[in-house]
Amino acid sequence: MPQMRPLDPAFPIDRQIALDAGPVVLVNLFTLDATDEQAFLKGWQDDAAFMKRQPGFISTQLHRAVGDNPTYLNYAVWESNALFRAAFTHPEFRAKIADYPASAVASPHLFQKVAVPGICVA
Q1: Which SS3 state, helix, strand or coil, does residue 82 take?
Q2: From CA 65, how far away is CA 72, in angstroms rounded?
Q3: What would the pLDDT profile of 81-97 be if each residue is shown by its tens digit?
Q4: How far apart, in whole angstroms, are the C-alpha atoms of residue 37 and residue 70?
Q5: Between β-strands 71-78 and 57-64, what pairing exists: parallel, antiparallel or unpaired?
Q6: Burial class, 112, CB count within 10 angstroms (exposed 0-12 / middle 13-18 / buried 19+)
Q7: Three-class SS of residue 10?
């Protein structure tokens, strides 16, 4: 199971999922040992396939950092925080994340789009 290291220690993911909001974007930064990269990718693929079947899931994308060290960034878009919470706390998902290599450190955080006039819409 990956270790959890919040992006914001004052407001970790377990507090964020308790809020009502929508739509939300999960951003999750993963660090791990290079020797565990293939095991990490298999674990991520398995849990992403589970999430893709859940109500409220819109999309996901995994990115690998440029360079030698395997650092990954995942983002996933959900219709609402309530639907993400149901998937994130589902016993089947919780069991799947136990398959990640021990060196994996996950830093999940939820975000909402921000409108900036003339630049982007919310």
Answers
A1: helix
A2: 6
A3: 999 999 999 999 888 88
A4: 7
A5: antiparallel
A6: exposed
A7: coil
Give the C-alpha separation, 15 to 39, whole Å.
29
DSSP letter for each residue of 83-111: HHHHHHT-HHHHHHHTTS-TT-EEEEEEE
Tokens at residue 28, please? Answer: 């999750």
Q: Do residues 38 and 95 lie in contact, with contact meaning Cβ atoms separated by under 8 Å?
A: no
Which tens digit of pLDDT belongs to each residue from 23-44? 999 999 999 999 999 999 999 9
Q: Is 90 helix (H, G, I), strand (E, B) or coil?
A: coil
Task: Say yes or no: domain 3-111 is CATH 3.30.70.100.
Answer: yes
∠ CA 51-82-20, nearest 5°, is 145
Query: CA–CA separation, 84 vs 51, rounded Å?
Result: 9
Q: What is the pTM of this model?
A: 0.90
Helices (H), 1-80: 13-16, 37-52
